[in-house]
Amino acid sequence: MGAATPPLLDGRSYLTDGGLETDLIFNHGIDLPEFAAFPLVEDESGRETLAAYYAAYADLARKAGAGLVLESPTWRANPDWAAKVGYDAAALDRANREAVRFLHQERDGYDDLSDVLISGQIGPRGDGYVAGEKADPDEAAAYHKPQIESFAAAGADLTQALTMTGPEEAIGIVRAARSVGLPVGISFTVETDGRLPDGTRLADAVAQVEADGGPDHYLLNCAHPEHVLPGLADENGGGWRERIVGFRPNASKRTHQELDEAEDLDAGDPAELSSSFEQLRARLPSVSLLGGCCGTDARHVAALWGLA
């Protein structure tokens, strides 16, 4: 079980990884059926691939003098998606636990890094690029709770739900994490207009989740900085933006639909991505966790941290 309060709120700076799945698929030629990386933890070759992947970001954290957040490769490790790659409930529990245990082993090798957190990563029940039907918070809580229980049992420090497309599923995940006792972060994604894929304004999405008690912190991911900017206007007052402590942008300026249909990797330009992020800093004053998402790799994260 992790700490009672998430260390990310201490105001320290943390580096995290880039777009794991797109990096492995397009840059390393690794087949990930259904975009699922979690099966890699279950064989030696897959673990070696993941170890090399995380080691690159550990090296960047050393150079940046920052802490490191190791996100488990479990974005697709929920029942609906796991069933498509042959995992039943028992096998899924095993894989989620093993993903966290694997990161513990990697962290043990980073003894020169003083602050390394292990985060159990949750993905949306749906596609992540498409809003789909509005979730029921209670159903979402029941759906995601087993994964969070697996993370807690294996010793995760916190859990973070990435690429949330609507506030209702996010509310359910927070409820589930609270019932398990694991600190939780919620990361929304937005379209080119700065709204969530279900059309909710970002400020309103945060307000809805906050009204139900809220997570320990918020993040934004899977959108280019230029797409996030319109969503950071001062609706509901600007104070809600201070609750956003993490940002993991896409390399590409393509829409989610265009990325979903693309057969190539749009890796954008690391320097341009970094420059675009700088335009957001004044509106995201609390961001202390910085990494990448789809299309990004260690080069992009290095640029975001001024290490390129």
Would you mind describing this structure in some detail?
40% of the residues lie in helices and 13% in strands. The chain is α/β, with parallel strands linked by helices and 308 residues long. The protein has one domain (10-304): TIM Barrel, CATH 3.20.20. Strands 1-2-3-4-5-6-7-8 form an eight-stranded parallel barrel, surrounded by four helices. Helix 6 runs parallel beside helix 7. The protein is globular. The N and C termini lie far apart (36 Å). The model is unreliable at 1-5 (pLDDT under 50).
What's a quick, concise take on this entry?
With 308 residues, the chain is of the alpha/beta class.
Low-pLDDT segments, ≥5 res:
1-5
Structural class assignment: alpha/beta
Counting structural domains, the number is 1
Please tell me the overall pLDDT: 92
**Multimerization state:** single chain
Helical amount = 40-55%
> What is the CATH class?
Alpha Beta
Put simply, the count of helices is 11
